[in-house]
Amino acid sequence: MPTPQDPVQLDMLFRHAEYQSMLNRIVKLEQDVTELKKDMEELKSAVNEIRSNYATKADLEELRAELYKTLMMLTWRFIGFNSLLVAVVYYVARNVH
Fold first, then answer.
1. H or E stretch at 29
2. Which parts of the chain are coiled coil (predicted)?
């Protein structure tokens, strides 16, 4: 039976300790990878939720057209109101003394 001082026995003990250390590191890495996969799935679902709320080019074009239409309507209302106001002031200035 080899003694603990035997180089072969010491080498086997060292290799066994190194093997155990490597196994522990592998187990830790597997746990970390499992957590990373779970986090990645959560991240993917969050990104998909964000993407589903994005405005598309068609949405932006529709909004642009609606904004243009509304601004044109308000511009003509403003012009009409000011024309009426000018007419009233002119009438008052000409006919009321």
1. helix 7-52
2. 19-53
Per-residue tokens: 4:
């603990």
**Residue 95 scores a pLDDT above 80:** yes
Q: How far is CA 17 from the centre of its chain?
A: 47
Predicted local confidence at residue 10, as pLDDT: 65
Looking at residue 8, what is its pLDDT? 67
Separation between Cα atoms, residue 79 and residue 12, nearest integer Å: 97
Report helix, strand or coil for 85.
helix
Q: Domain extents for the chain?
A: 1-54, 56-97
User: What tokens appear for 73 in the block?
Assistant: 């309507």
Structure tokens at 84: 């009426």
Pair of tokens at residue 94: 């000409």
